[in-house]
Design a protein that fits this description.
This protein is of the alpha+beta class and 164 residues long. It has 2 domains: 50 residues, Orthogonal Bundle (Arc Repressor Mutant, subunit A); 76 residues, Alpha-Beta Plaits. The protein is 34% helix and 18% strand. It has a 4-stranded antiparallel beta sheet with strand order 2-3-1-4. A hairpin with a 7-residue loop joins strand 2 and strand 3. Helix 1 packs across helix 2 and helix 2 packs across helix 3. The protein starts with 7 loop residues before the first helix and ends in a 21-residue tail after the last strand.
Length: 164
């Protein structure tokens, strides 16, 4: 699918939906200054294009007892497609991994963000799973002490299309 160029109304819709994906179409239309039918058509077009990938519910990590967030740098022994594919397939199966990216500019190949209950669980996860993936030669972990900024909304002022 082709990603549509975004106009002012599209950006308003996306901005409102990033803040509250459960808003009704009637409330959304009112918030962005459109009538309900054209608003619903725009949302459908944004969904069909793949620009809106999902509607999710954000949970409170601390209230769920998942008090430890780790950023884990992983180094691989070889930079080959088969080695990377195997590693990526393995980490996709771990629910503790909430994000995994291939990175540059560091002495590592991957940066993982993992969420776990505590340090004892993290040790079992690290030693029992991550370090056992074939090709992993180095692991460096950092732990979140306090979040300063945490957002899920993307900065829409920097998107393709008409500037606002």
């Amino acid at each position: 699918m082709t990603i549509p160029k975004l106009d002012r109304s599209d950006r308003r819709i996306l901005d409102v939906l990033q803040g509250n994906a459960r808003i009704s179409n009637l409330e959304l239309a009112d918030a962005v200054g459109l009538s309900p039918t054209p608003c619903a058509r725009r949302v459908k077009r944004l969904e069909d294009s793949g620009l809106i990938r999902a509607h999710v519910t954000l949970l409170d990590q601390q209230e769920l007892g998942l008090s430890l967030t780790a950023f884990i740098n992983i180094s691989m022994d070889r930079h080959t497609p088969d080695r990377f594919e195997a590693f990526e397939a393995a980490v996709r199966d771990y629910p503790e991994v909430i994000e995994c990216s291939v990175v540059t500019g560091q002495n590592s190949d991957y940066l993982i963000q993992a969420v776990v209950p505590d340090m004892a669980y993290y040790e079992r996860f690290l030693l029992g799973h991550l370090t056992r993936i074939p090709g992993v030669t180095g692991v460096h972990s950092s732990f979140v002490l306090r979040r300063v900024v945490q957002r899920t909304a993307l900065p829409l002022a920097h998107t393709v299309g008409e500037r606002t």
